Amino acid sequence: MRALSALFVSLGLMLAAPAQAQVTPRPGAPASFAQLTAKLLPTVVNISTSQTLKAPSRGALPDLPEDSPLSELFKNFMGRGGQPRQVTSLGSGFIIDPSGFIVTNNHVIENGEQITVILSDETSLPARVVGRDPQTDLALLKVNPAKPLPAARFGDSDKAQIGDWVVAMGDPFGIGTTVTAGIISARNRNINAGPYDDFIQTDAPINRGNSGGPLFDMDGNVIGINSAIFSPTGGSVGIGFSIPANLARDVIQQLRQFGQARRGWIGVRIQAVTAELAQAMNLPSRQGALISDVTANGPAAKAGLRNGDLVVSFDGKPVPDNRALPRIVANTPIGKTVNVEVLRAGRKSSHRVAVARLAEDRPADRATKPPPPAPRPQSRLGQMGLTVGALDGAARARFKIGAQVQGVVVTQVTPGSRAGEKNIRPGDVIVEVQSQKVTTPDAVNKAIEAAAKSGKPVALFLISRGGEVTYVGVRLN
User: Fold this and answer.
1) Contact assessment for residue 105 and residue 211, using Cβ atoms and an 8 Å cutoff
2) Which among 363, 314, 367 is positioned nearest to 336, based on CA atoms?
3) 1 has a pLDDT exceeding 90
4) CB atoms closer than 10 angstroms to residue 148
5) Which entry of 89, 107, 217, 313 is annotated as an active-site residue?
6) CATH of the domain spanning 157-258
7) pLDDT for 88-108, tens place per residue?
8) Which of 139, 291, 397, 426 is placed for a possible disulfide with 106 were both Cys, Cβ 3.0 to 4.6 Å?
């Protein structure tokens, strides 16, 4: 597992009260979880992995007498005679197919040279990796059992609600399969584990070793895969995170079919809509995903999408924020043509986009020429805390900016200034100001002066950093 709940019962007096909206009751906690867990426990497995670690060379040991107690201590700590050591780790998983397909976390098995699955009847079976996906921390294993195995089934995690009862199963600390119960504490949690974070949070106690184990609903369906905990102590403090079943199901199907995840891609970079950006771009709200860059000749570019478009709907699904769009696109079948609704200059437009397959990113360009002399500061930009210069060959070499990037380079940012507060840094490239491309420092300054004279409260920059572009709103006053 990557490292106090209470049941409050409201009691009321039999007094007349104003009429309230009726709430449809949902199934509560059973008097006992025994019948449910007896059926589900055989579907849960323990996973053991082992790998060989090379011991440090004896030259790293201090020069101590052989009969010294410290000599023995250092031998035990550093390794004896440079001999490699076998280390093991433990995790959990669950069976999804009677033929022996097993789901777990990628971090449980990623460094394992040998993987062993231990069934509920203590049978040990060697396992092979069918596929794994570091982006979602999922992996699919295969064992060859002598007879069909009991299998769990995925449920619809979108139907799970905050407050619903759940049961977690796994092998915490290697002590053996353990059952805990709790409720769903939150939905759609982003813990910065990856680009597709959408975790279910639960207070059902899960600990190290529970990784890869299932989170069941009261109908016995897997609605989550336990993956991480928040803990200052290393143990459960009632904040655990599970990968939603609806996200896991699609990834597992692809791992089973292709050995890897195949995700949709439309060729845009997006960002969140801040309060300053909403004001600078006259947006009605902060909902949606703001396009900051469109890949040339990509699906979005071919469909007519542009920088500054606000995506509000994708394939009929609402896009509440910039975190939702990557998940929706990634789960869209490759080759499917979808309808994308955007807000552009206050008007809604619709575009047909053919979803392509996501490929790995290419490394950024690098250069090695000497640094350029510092350019002169600009008056209005100076008030904002910015000094800019021409993006010539020397500037590209100094800040390692690729030839494909065009604009004006930021050479200095005053600490504590308005620009500094927005995390603008030296080496950033100003591509646009107020949605107009700029190629000289003078053009940047003129655009800022014009925005100030027209009464704009915020200057809108399109900034390129390390090959990625993002909109930044900096207050003028």
Assistant:
1) yes
2) 314
3) no
4) 11
5) 107
6) 2.40.10.10
7) 778 999 999 999 999 999 999
8) 139
More confident residue, 410 or 51: 410
Query: Which is catalytic among the residues 48, 92, 133, 137?
Result: 137
Domain boundaries, the chain: 157-258, 268-357, 379-475
Q: Residue 211 catalytic?
A: yes
Identify whether 137 is a catalytic site residue. yes
- Of 318, 263, 264, the C-alpha closest to 289 is 318
Buried b (16+ CB within 10 A) or exposed e, 345-369: eeeeeebebebbebeeeeeeeeeee
What are the start-end ranges of the H helices in 101-231? 106-109
- 351 catalytic per annotation: no
Q: Quote the distance between the C-alpha of residue 285 and its chain's center.
A: 24
> 136 in helix, strand or coil?
coil
CATH number listed for the domain at residues 268-357:
2.30.42.10
Phi, psi (5° rounding) for residue 41? -55, -40
Q: Which residue has the tokens 């805390």?
A: 385
Half-sphere exposure of 360 (CA within 13 A, CB side): 3
